[in-house]
Design brief:
11 helices, mainly alpha, single chain
């Protein structure tokens, strides 16, 4: 199975990923972001007509999110692949760009699990929820252990990012680097830790900077 994934064409793997991830996103939008949830979330803040406009706009432009998903995914995989290639140079690991791109795709499959957990949680457990509950829900993260109402918006993203799935993603990156070129799993993981974690830290700081500028009160 692992050898088949290694040999599978990168372009086909990327297309399959986009289709599968779009399907999961569609399930979330269809079963969780319902009209009743939107009404209940904005009932005390906006008029009925304004809420109707929001729902109509969401339905009208829902296709935009699916259209840009491949583009955003390609950028993410490209950046991760560049990080891996930079690390491969320092760790003397023979890794081509196509292989690094494929490693990024295969490892990213881990992040489908949080979406499935979110669907399960709000459909079967916490059936009475608001849009804020959906946005703040981050399975197995530090944020979910705290009271989000008492946390500044500036810290939402970093606390959401500190989760079990991010750890599994890093371990998965190390595993696939090992499968594609590193002599041992330990070497592959060390390479990922040395190149991906600094890049992730820079990304978190950038997001916090943008958040602070868009919302000075955060």
């Amino acid at each position: 199975m692992l050898n088949q994934l290694k040999a599978y064409p990168t372009v086909r793997l990327f297309i399959f990923y986009c289709i599968y991830f779009s399907s999961i996103t569609y399930l979330v939008q269809s079963f969780l972001f319902t009209e009743n949830v939107i009404y209940n979330s904005y009932a005390e803040q906006l008029s009925y007509d304004r809420i109707e406009e929001i729902i109509d706009g969401q339905n009208k432009y829902a296709w935009v999110g699916y259209a840009i998903l491949p583009f955003l995914s390609a950028i993410k995989f490209f950046l991760v692949a560049c990080c891996l290639l930079a690390g491969a140079v320092f760790f003397d690991i023979k890794l081509k760009f196509g292989q690094a791109f494929k490693v990024a795709i295969l490892a990213d499959a881990i992040f489908i699990l949080p979406f499935l957990i979110k669907i399960f949680w709000f459909l079967l457990i916490q059936t009475d929820y608001t849009l804020q509950d959906l946005q703040m829900f981050s399975p197995l993260s530090i944020l979910n252990l705290l009271d989000a109402k008492n946390i500044d918006a500036l810290w939402f993203y970093p606390l959401q990012l500190l989760n079990v799935f991010e750890l599994l993603y890093i371990l998965s990156l190390g595993f696939w680097v090992y499968k594609f070129g590193a002599k041992t799993y330990e070497k592959g993981l060390n390479m990922v830790l040395s190149c991906y974690l600094p890049a992730l830290f820079v990304w978190i700081v950038l997001v916090m900077f943008v958040t602070l500028n868009l919302n000075p009160q955060a």
